[in-house]
Amino acid sequence: MSAPIDMPPAQGPYAYVNAGIVDPSIGLNEPGGVLIQDGQVIACGREVMPEALGDVPHIDCRGFLLVPGLVDMRVFTGEPGAEHRETLASASEAAAAGGVTTIIVMPNTDPVIDDVALVDFILRRARDTAIVRVAPMAALTKKTAGEQMTEIGLLQEAGAVAVTDGNRSVTNARVLRRALSYARDFDMLVVQHVEERELAAGGVMNEGEVATRLGLPGIPTAAEVIMLERDLRLVELTGARYHAAQISCAASVELIARAKARGLPVTAGVSVNHLVLNENDIGAYRSFFKLAPPLRTEADRQAVVAGVADGTIDVIVSSHDPQEPDTKRLPFAEAEFGAIGLETMLSALMGLVHNRTIPISRLIDALSCAPARILGLGIGSLRPGAPADLAVIAPHHSWRVEAQALKSKSKNTPFEHRVLEGCVAQTVVAGHLVYSRSLR
Amino acid sequence: MAISDQPNRILSHSHLLGIDGLSAQEVTQLLDLAESYVELNRQGEKKQAVLRGRTQINLFFEPSTRTQSSFELAGKRLGADVMNMSVKGSSVSKGETLLDTAVTLNAMHPDLLVVRHSAAGAAELLAQKVGCAVINAGDGSHEHPTQALLDALTIRRRKRRIEGLTIAICGDILHSRVARSNILLLQLLGARVRVIAPRSLLPYAVDRYGVEVFSRMEEGLAGCDIVMMLRLQLERMNGAFVPSVREYYRYFGLDQVKLARAKPDALVMHPGPMNRGVEIDSAVADGVQSVISEQVEMGVAVRMAVLDALARNLNGGRRSPQGIAQPQRSSAESRSTFGRIEL
Fold first, then answer.
1. What DSSP element (H or E) covers A191?
2. pTM (2 d.p.)
């Protein structure tokens, strides 16, 4: 595992037994246990039985699922610069409550994470204050202005796990081409927010009938598709590893599928929101549903769900973006984009498992194994020798989301008052129990 | 019909936020009530005591001389205490949010709040947070219900009906709250509605609103009973929607030649203010078919009717504002796909 996200290991052996183990990285989807010592997985699977453990303390997990801890590739925090919205500490508390053991934070802070010293700052703050692993993506261009590329090699050395301009797209094709070419030499992943900025300018929700009815300016799916098509051409030109941070519509799923079929080094993500919500959820101008990219039509939602199910879309992210009341309790058009999601992500997605739209093993792959693999982190697995990062899930425990009870500093959740089936019972990072929930 | 003959309750809603959600019966009753106020406004003694003791605040975040003065006059003629609040010089320009304003206003105990705002949904947001009746006087590109009602009243008085008429709405449909409200209202009352505009000024999927869409004036105006022109909203155009004003006038400006395609007795309407020589020729604007100044007259009567109707629903008391953290559940929400995984 790379140095930046090391956590001190817990001592002494202990085990979880009689759980339903779901770990696609080692092809497990069966009853079994996990034996942990010194912050690492010692054994995993059917052989970890209570009778074989002797004096080793163990926790009976009958009726629970046990999965590798989730790795969330897209988390915005307010640290540094807007700590009143979210700190690394509060984001990590929210992550732990959602079964997320590693958060990858975006560089869109104040100042922007575009310098070695700032990467170092994030890692030190995380080490001192966070209860889950934290790794930063650094900016792809200085100040995310889209003009001058950052010191990709030095940033990688300092601990940045990828480069991205976060919620800003690199619109200048020449700049992106050069950055992709340069990043390839370091095998550094380039992550892009796929949105043609000029075409999306002024838009606040999906362009379509609902926007017309509400009188709100729309963002067409073409804004995403045009940018994605252009980027794929540049990937073809440069051979760099490229990840589309969040796609939201049917046409993008098709593009990614075609690019993969042609052998391009391309991966894609989607946010939980785009998998379980659609533009109709905006209802009467509810600004907590104002997201970038915007919530699309039901047909688009179904297409991205199918994209996750068949593996075209590799990764699911929370796209956690804390916003305070001052930036959200405004008329829809004036409110900021973004919603929090770390704590509700897994629960919201369990609905897709319960209605048999996405198999549980694919879901855990998209939430844990795939992001770890794409970022080369050496986590996201319960294989012996791996760090003991895991989540225990109560798949049928229903709970009602109450924003005030969430651990994030900001409360802008689109799932307020929803009843979700499935929750995280325990979260473990490097063998330490960082979250435990009473289920009664 | 005399004012006293009107049914006590006209609107089933506490606010007038848009045409969307009104029934044909409610609209007809509002128009009937407005009709009686037209007669009152033409008398020497115009003052009524219908809103005596009531406080009406006109809260205008966007400048609008004619709508604001129309509401002011309507309130005063019905005996309300009317206060105008404009944004310039207010604390809103110093960074106060819309909801802060709502809290402040609430403390003044108004009964009727008339709101104009540049953001779609602003009136709805305020309505959730204040304890009085809210009237949307135009929110962004969303709705402008009293304009649609006054247009309908003008048409009904001139043509004696709305059902079965063919009505063309022409120009900047994309940015027009007037067009949205009119499309909803005129169809609700049985008219056939056409929209005529360059494609760059048409909202997405407007054809699915049950309107016929034309991009040539000559075709769209053929056989129309009503020609409703819209202002080319130059101030909202931060991108190039049309190549030039000159070209726009050539293809989409209403002149005598294009108007000749409509029925000989077709009425010409415009919500104002007009850009003469851009979307309408002066000769047409001032011609015999124009009912533009009559629209202004109907505006006062319609707004009196709306204020009256909403005041009846107040029942002497005040509504309770909703809690900040509990937004209204809408019908759209119940259609949510997410509902499927709720238990």
1. strand A190-192
2. 0.83
